Amino acid sequence: MPRAIERILVIKLSALGDFVLALAAMKKIREAHPKAHITLLTTPPFEALAKACPYFNAVDTGGRPHGLAAWLALRTRIRSARFSRVYDLQTSSQSNRIFQILRPGPPAWSGIALGCSLPHSNPLRNGMHTLERQADQLMHAGIWPDAPVTPGAAPPPDLSWIVKSAPSDRSTPAGANRPRPYVIFVPGGSAHRMDKRWPVERYAELARILYGRGFDIVVVGGPQETELAHAIQRATPRARDLTGRTDFAAVAVLGAKAALAIGNDTGPLHLAAAAGAATIVLFSKASDPALSAPRGRVTILQAESLSDLPVAQVARAAQAMTA
Questions:
Q1: N or C: at which end does the chain have fewer Cβ atoms within 10 angstroms?
Q2: Are the C-beta atoms of residues 137 and 110 closer than 8 Å to each other?
Q3: So what's the pLDDT on residue 170?
Q4: Share of the chain above pLDDT 90, in %
Q5: Does 4 have pLDDT greater than 70?
């Protein structure tokens, strides 16, 4: 009788930057279970990215159920799938509730849910960067015995699979003038975290400086950030406004080909950095780069309030990264 296929559930529900960082742990889970059927439990914004990802066989976007009927349906789906193991990369009150509704007899569970069988019991976990924290979690789960857990040691997420699947750009014929290199601007972010944003007039001034140095400017973000792009265009009319016009994969492809990406601590900048862009990320006291900064060719600039961060300092960092 053929051996049953191992069935694994991975849980990751949260914001884009966190999701991008978790791709490193997701890759390790796939490597540890190469023949398993792996399902990702997530939310609708990440469906397309997750379905394109080579680490999963199935994607369930019902990870934040609303109402009793939806919770019962989620419990039924998880129980009927007969998962042999769950890797909870969300480790939040939400994923703890998911664990508790599976009692009695929940699957083997890696995370911090009360009573789980594979607890991440490191008391220092909340002071670790996401990459080292999740590497340490997988070490405690027994699938990464030599996990790099010292600060800065864990590998960054790998988005080469997105870049490889993108259509090649053959729009510039041989012998034609090559397009100018471009810099991605990410001036937006969560609407309820305005303290994580560098003032848009500073982006506008920086755009003018970088355009004068020979770089085109490409502004990305959600449709709600189009006015930010328009403010930048008033200073640099040739800046391209792609707000609301790019999905997550397109942002990654742009990042892979960019000379530089500059932006606030927000999801699209994490995507660009993970795709390989040289990146300048701007942090205020509202978040801690030691816990959540993107990794790769990254320069971190900090100010207690981003209104105190001068354009000249960012321009100098940009010069150093593009020299």
A1: N
A2: yes
A3: 45
A4: 89
A5: no
Q: What is the pLDDT of residue 192?
A: 82
Helix axes 16-32, 267-274, angle to 10 degrees: 40
pLDDT at 292: 93
- Report which DSSP code applies to 194: G
Every domain of the chain and the residues it spans: 7-158, 161-322
3 state SS for 230-280: HHHHHHCCCCEECCCCCCHHHHHHHHHHCCEEEEECCHHHHHHHHCCCCEE
Cα 108 → chain centroid: 27
Domain 161-322 homologous superfamily, CATH: Glycogen Phosphorylase B; (3.40.50.2000)
One fold for 7-158 and 161-322: yes
The stretches of 33-159 forming alpha helices (DSSP H) are 47-52, 68-81, 93-101, 130-140
**286 SS3 class:** coil
> Quick check: bond before 65 cis, omega within 30?
no
